[in-house]
Amino acid sequence: MSAPEVTRFAPSPSGYLHLGHAYSALFAARQAGKGGRFLLRIEDIDLARVRPEYEAAIFEDLAWLGLTWETPLRRQSDCLADYAQALARLEARGLVYPCFCTRKEIAAEIAHAGAAPHGPAEQVYPGTCRRLNRAERDRRQDAGAAYALRLDMNHACGEAETEHGGPLTWHDRGRGTQVCDPRALGDVVLARKDVATSYHLSVVVDDAAQGVTLVTRGEDLFEFSHVHRLLQQLLGLPVPDYHHHRLITDDKGARLAKRADALAIRALREAGHSAGEVIAMTGLEP
Ligand code: GLU
To answer: Which residue's C-alpha comes closest to atom 4 of ligand 1?
Structure first.
């Protein structure tokens, strides 16, 4: 019997939960183990896409699956002060810089540098605004230009490794101990132009604030755990264990997206399936 854990399920209320979410939520709840705690977090910083009815549907669908979670739950839009505080610590260490680039400019810069049009390089920021001098940064900020804040990845890794006395590591329950190397992801965004935080910053702050001991999530997010381990080091936060689980795919082998309406939990329910049947469809024991 494994030790009790604190786990969480962290959906975004930007669509209805589908079979993949059911698997992820059940996986997290079951990993908490006997005597453990299963928490819920509403990741609602993407203000343009979240809707209150999707949040209500999350509660309804999870309850229908037989899940219970501790209250109060954590809702990211209520925690902006926590993210601001973390950001201020990283800024004070000189690890963050303003980025004025638009998506279009970033794409053009990458194309100009001759990178392949598809693949991970597509998302890696080429560092344009990192090279701006102080006067130019001030001029743009004073002129009211919108900007995101990015982590100076190389600098941040160097600082963290020096502080730690060697390479950082993190542990994945499925794949074993990992040497932390987020450099390939480039200067990730810590605060977006439209909201003063980002997925990476919020998740790290939240997992620490909620006392999560085991982060469970889909294997599509595996690489991001390198970034999260780095941020934990820089912010002096505890390091949880990780378990990245398989993804549920449709009958063509494609990853389910929120628009996979036919496999939405509520659609399956309305089609007459029982909760036990839906759980069985995820491949888990009912
Ligand atoms: N909110 C993220 C998602 O919907 C999951 C975040 C996480 O588990 O780190 O995929």
So the answer is: 11
Pocket of ligand 1 contains residue 43 by CB under 6 Å? yes
Q: How far is the CA of 164 from the centre of ligand 1 (A)?
A: 28
**Atom 8 (ligand 1) nearest CA:** 217
Question: Which atom from ligand 1 is nearest to the alpha carbon of 215?
Answer: 8
What is the side-by-side order of every strand in the sheet holding 176-179? 176-179, 169-172, 241-245, 214-218
The single-letter code of the amino acid at 132 is L
Say what the pTM is: 0.94
Structure confidence by residue, pLDDT tens digits, 182-201: 999 999 999 999 999 999 99
Q: Domains, the chain, ranges and CATH?
A: 1-78+248-286 (3.40.50.620), 80-210+224-239 (3.40.50.620)
